[in-house]
Amino acid sequence: MNLKLKKMANNQLDIKFPKGGILIIVLAVVAIILFSKSTVTINSGQAGVLYKTFGGGVVTDEPPLGEGFQVVAPWNKIFIYEVRQQEIYEKMQVLSSNGLEIQLEASVWFQPQSDKIGSLHQEKGENYISRVIQPTVRSAARSVVGRYTPEQLYSSKRDVIQTEIFEETKKILDRQYIQLNDILVRDVTLPTTIKTAIERKLKQEQESLEYEFRLVTAKKEAEKQIIEAQGKADANRILSASLTEKILQDKGIEATIELSKSSNSKVVVIGSGKTGMPIILGNQ
After folding, report:
1. Is the pTM of this model over 0.85?
2. Where do the TM regions start and end (predicted)?
3. Which residues contact 188 (CB under 8 A, 6 or more apart)?
């Protein structure tokens, strides 16, 4: 039995790898490693910044690598950036013009300038949002809000401060290879006591405006009645001045003739009145 086992061991020792087999395996492993290090897939809405280890570092004078499958030298690197619009939400504590603390909530829409990603990576780095965008937005918000009172922020100036924060932020980010698309002020929160006082004041102002409106309306209605009464008085005065005794007699005659035609008129006495006007008797 021992001889049989010894013979089997000797046969196993006689097995040899094919000529060059080890070399092929080593080359295959190296090829797989190099391939994995030399390829990268860039997804939709992304772009790649090429870093040449032996060629000057970050490439800034060429367009960034686009979407899809990319092959690079294994000793180089690719840094991938999101180039479509992104959003960050900012909640800040700022001071109004009279020193009261205001809470401001805003959304910032932005994206890197697609042709300047190399420079953005070289100068600002992958953390450019926290290094550049957030400090800039907060600084602009403090500067703008500090120009207004709480009453203005609460009522009529929200759209104005939104526009001013956007303009001040954009001036800075344009020089930092970042495209600012918009800033939306979502909420402005005042201290409870200040908010209550402002609401009470606005209510009183509204009531005062309503009372003034009623006074103006009543005054106009009175003026209208005075004008109508004056018109009637002037008309009566003009009419009275134009009615002479002769005209009245003629009108009386005309009226008597019309009355005499009525079936209810029975007796007409001519010249019986004080002025000689006819008198009609027997009205049934």
Report:
1. no
2. 20-36
3. 102, 103, 104, 105, 153, 154, 158
